[in-house]
Amino acid sequence: MKRSVSKKDVLQVCTGDITRLAVDAIVNAANNSLLGGSGVDGAIHRAAGPRLLALTRTMGGCPTGQARITPGFDLPARWIIHTVGPVWHGGGQGEAALLRSAYESCLTLAVEYRLRSIAFPAISTGVYGYPFAEAAEIAVRTAWGFTSDLDTIIFCCFREQDAAFINLAPI
Ligand code: AR6
């Protein structure tokens, strides 16, 4: 299928702290408990404030590869979409399918909530150990499937050097 030129601009890369982004939703790379943790999860809980934990305590967690939505509370973003990526065990334990499912679940929720803009951290590439380049390829390939449904899909890299691994060309 031919892609229109304008669709290309839906996908963007930025560097820095995702909690600062004033988009409709930022994605949290959470764990199965949804009760917070280190990395981007900790940063999001700190920036969103204590009402986030008060709510996620009632939500019963989230299976790997799925997603849940909460308000953004004190964040500039209106919503937080919490997803749980796979722990990297070498690639032979369904990690790629689970990571694709995590991205797909977030993007599907964004469409259901009629959101126009969403920003992703590099899910699973920190504590969970997923090789960055492989994870980035899955992220971009999955996001291309949603470029007709959203105006802006941002890949937010915390470390400046990670942005070089993200190739936005359609795969
Ligand atoms: N903004 C954007 N990206 C960030 C930020 C930030 N403020 N902070 C870190 N990153 P990680 P995971 C990047 O470890 O691998 C937590 O304890 C970071 O450079 O946050 O999915 C959860 O509770 C990396 O590229 O998430 C889980 O237990 C990416 O975010 C576990 O870690 C993901 O790193 C999830 O591990």
TrEMBL record:
The organism's place on the tree of life at top rank: Bacteria
GO terms, molecular function: O-acetyl-ADP-ribose deacetylase activity
Macro domain boundaries: 1-171
Kindly give the InterPro entries that the UniProt entry links to this protein.
Macro_dom, Macro_dom-like
Q: Which Pfam families does UniProt cross-reference here?
A: Macro
The protein depicted here goes by the name O-acetyl-ADP-ribose deacetylase
Report the source organism.
Answer: Thiolapillus brandeum
